[in-house]
Amino acid sequence: MNIIEKIIKISIFSTLFYSSFLKAEINITLIDDNITSYKRVLKEIQSSKDSSKNEELVLEEALLKKLIKISKNDTNKTMSSKNRYHLYAIKSESDYRKLYENYIIDLKNKEYISNNLQDLKSKKEAILKQIESNKHIKIKPIILKIQYKLYKKEFSILNREVEELKKELKRDILLFEIKLKDIFLNDKIAKEHILNYQKVISSLELHIRTYEIRKERLGLIKDANNTIELGEQIKELKEAEKTTKAIEAEEHFIIFSKALKDRDIDIVQKEKKALDILYDSIYTSNIVRELDTLLLRLQKHYLGTLQTIKGSLKEEFKDTIYTIWEKINQPILTIGETKISTIKLSLAFLIFIFGFLIGKIYKLSIKRVTKTTHNITPSTQMLLANLGYYLIVIISFFVMLNILGISLSSIALVAGALSVGIGFGLQNIVSNFVSGLILMFERSLKIGDFIEFNSGIRGHVSDIRMRSTTITTNDNIDVIVPNQDLIQNHVINWTMNDRIRRFRIPFGVAYGTDADKVECIILEAVKTSGGLDIYENATKKTCIIMTEMGDSSVNFELFVWIKGREILWPRRTKARFLRLIYKTLNTHGIEIPFPQRDIHLKGIDNPIPVIIKKDFP
Predict the structure, then answer these.
(1) Which of 95, 231, 538, 562 is the most buried (most CB within 10 A)?
(2) Helical ranges in 374-496 per DSSP H
(3) Neighbours of 153 (CB within 10 A)
(4) For residue range 584-611, what is the model confidence (pLDDT) as tens digits?
(5) What is d(CA 541, CA 537) in angstroms, rounded to the nearest whole number?
(6) Pairing between strand 478-482 and 338-341?
């Protein structure tokens, strides 16, 4: 089925429905819409020859009497209706309050009548469907038509009353706008009244909660009579609370009106907010909408549209900020009895990160200061930097806990759980951490020390951290060593107390060489070599000793004390003295022998032939 066919079918259906509706309306007009016709029909029923009236006739008679009565009342009311407010002047605060109270009453009446109109409308539609469908076998058509006339008449009267109320409400608003500027309003007394009403409301709320709790207890023991009685008392208390709030709203309206006269935007917006809260708690949404319209019109009239919009935006902004603040303050998790919200967690995280940044800045500052101060050693500089850094981080951690509201007892619980974890899997981490603290405070290893391990790795201590130490070798390779290894294993510190070390340089000469001469020329060569790093004093002197008479040579060893940075490159320093010895021995013609071996042949009976070949030119 295409779209055109659908449209045609819908049109045909609508036409048939509308025509049937008109037929029903035409049939209903059998009775004219006037009191004379109603009375005539009623007289016919009453003068019926059938003395024993059946139920249908009784029902027709009752409906017609009600219809006639409503028509008479409507005629009299229409003739006597007049405006309530425009006949007298509003000159005092009491008149202004009366205007406000009548405005509230009109709003309630309008809503009540509007609800009745909706109900009557649905009843009229139901009667029309009955008349149209002809399924009223047990009911005479005339009864349905009279009842429809009754609903129609009531609907017309109520609709006219609603229109009159709308006019009255418009006049009320106009009076609010015109008369406010000429009336003296005492807002101080209104504020005192509000405080008293709020006390009454608090007391009523307390009584309501007390009765509700008692009702729950009675409900558990199934005491029906007392439960019903308490329910009635709770209902009365709630009604009293609602009434008190309505009176409080009137006082807020007086303060609001006074602020409008004084053009105090802040108080106007504050009181409007209070009125909105009260109206929401005591009136329906339709009445609240009408009251909000009144407040906005008064604001625009006395403050102007621009100021009204500005004030509204300001209040909306405040409300938005307050809502956001409430949202981020809602707890997202609970540690023990401490509730942690988003704002607390975010602020604590920022404080902790800020502490880390301050710690980093502190370390960089210490390094920058020590570069310009020669009195502070690198090890002292590193100790100050690390200790200060960790102190700042720990302080940041405790500040973070304080912001979160976590007590030390909670930390004790975490520490207890952490100790179990340490016992299972964090032993090495904690051991390295403690070893790092020992190294920092004991100072057996310092930044810049040249150390050597049993494995042969040598290098400078370039950094000592809480878990590990960095060793930089002469090849510029960084070796990360756990702090625990530095405490438990053997470590040689070449520069723990000073930078003086004795080097041993072995060498050998051929048998038959004068040992005294060798010692004399080598010592002289060392003395005249011009090495500024060679150190001597009363206990530390350069010397040569004979160590052994080897297979191929007489072996000596040169002991020389070296001071300064040259000790940090032991191979290079040793190579320098080896070259000096080699050059000195060559200069004096002293032989440095090769390894020599004597071969002895045994157990050969036959002579070994020796053939000498000689080449002649």
Answers:
(1) 562
(2) 378-404, 408-424, 427-442, 483-488
(3) 18
(4) 999 988 888 877 666 666 665 666 666 6
(5) 6
(6) unpaired
